[in-house]
Amino acid sequence: MEYLRLIKYPGSKKSLLPDIRETYAGSGSGLFVDVFGGSGLVSLNINASRIVYNDLNRELVNLFAAVKENPAFMKESLERLLDVPARYSGPGREPVETEDSPAYYIMRRKARARNSQLLDRKSLSFLREGGTKIASGREIRAFETLYRFSTSFGGMGNTYGTQKEKSSYIYLEKTLHDFRKISSCVRRWKIENLDFREVIAKYDGEGTFFYLDPPYQGKDWYDMTFTRGDYIDMKHLMDSAKGKYLLNLGLDNSPVSGIFGQPSRVVEYGQKNQSSGGDNRSSGKIGFFMNFRKL
């Protein structure tokens, strides 16, 4: 499935996108509110006439605000970042093979590996030098956030990639390739930096659809602590909501799953993790909790 994404981020719902889109389409709602927007993956790939992206993480909110308000700077900075010396044809030579030949593919793969090594060591000082579009300090910090999450292990933003992950150069190449589509989507968003209680109260009403993918309790992936009390507050809010909602919650050994009762449906998903001993496949179950039946 083709999809848009801007950064790596833990807890991505890539595998659930078809189910999320189908559920929203069956709600008959016009306003889509991504309560815990995170990486923006769902908001970037939902077919809604109006979208509210919300997150409590100021770094992420600042990143999407920069993509919305100054896309030219963000795109040019990506182009300059990826302009590293290692070319696909090797130093000083043009490729003699055609692009669909095995030799060209191997050459390109090796050059991308070299580019990733150079990219991980490349300074971002050019952001503060001449040559890029005019940008504020806030927009410069936004690009630094994009770089940090895209080159870090698992999108954690504070540890760097390993050979088991797709190279940071390949990852950012795709970001640049899709950037026009990404910025076109983000341009239509309303971007908020609110607690989930506030954003639900602000936008609740008939015709509103809330998508809730809250932080996993007990995980240190996020810059905030989400407690059992927060889940209970969310349950009370959604019970009284005028709008429709979809809550995704992991069901495997979840300490909070009982709060929301039985899910409307359960989706099994698989994840492929590489190890030195070969491929290991793990699977889990995600509950879809809803207050409506699809049209």
How is this structure best summarized?
The protein has helices spanning 17-25, 41-44, 58-69, 71-81, 102-121, 137-150, 168-177, 179-186, 196-203, 228-239; strands at 31-34, 50-54, 189-192, 208-212, 244-250, 265-275, 278-290.
Sequence-ordered SSE layout with sheet pairings:
Elements: H1 17-25, E1 31-34, H2 41-44, E2 50-54, H3 58-69, H4 71-81, H5 102-121, H6 137-150, H7 168-177, H8 179-186, E3 189-192, H9 196-203, E4 208-212, H10 228-239, E5 244-250, E6 265-275, E7 278-290
Parallel strand pairs: 1-2, 1-4, 2-3, 4-5
Antiparallel strand pairs: 5-7, 6-7
Catalogue the unreliable spans: 85-97, 154-165, 272-281
Main sheet summary: 7 strands, mixed
Count of individual domains: 2
- Assigned CATH superfamily of the largest domain: Vaccinia Virus protein VP39
The level-1 CATH class of the largest domain: Alpha Beta
Classify the secondary structure makeup into a structural class: alpha/beta
- At CATH level 2, the architecture of the largest domain is 3-Layer(aba) Sandwich
> How many DSSP E strands?
7
**What is the strand content?**
15-25%
End-to-end separation in angstroms reads 24 Å
Count of DSSP-assigned helices? 10
Within the CATH hierarchy, at the fold level, what is the topology of the largest domain? Rossmann fold
Query: What is the mean pLDDT?
Result: 81
Order of adjacent strands in the largest pleated sheet: 3-2-1-4-5-7-6
Radius of gyration: 21 Å
Element order: H for helix, E for strand: HEHEHHHHHHEHEHEEE
Shape: globular
Overall description:
There is one protein chain. Helix content is 37%, strand content 17%. The protein has 2 domains: 1-56 and 194-295, 3-Layer(aba) Sandwich (Rossmann fold), CATH 3.40.50.150; 59-180, no CATH class. By secondary structure, it is an alpha/beta fold. Strands 3-2-1-4-5-7-6 form a 7-stranded mixed β-sheet, with helices on both faces. It has helices at 17-25, 41-44, 58-69, 71-81, 102-121, 137-150, 168-177, 179-186, 196-203, 228-239, and strands at 31-34, 50-54, 189-192, 208-212, 244-250, 265-275, 278-290. Mean pLDDT is 81; it is low at 85-97, 154-165 and 272-281. Helix 2 links the parallel strand 1 and strand 2. It is built from 10 helices and 7 strands.
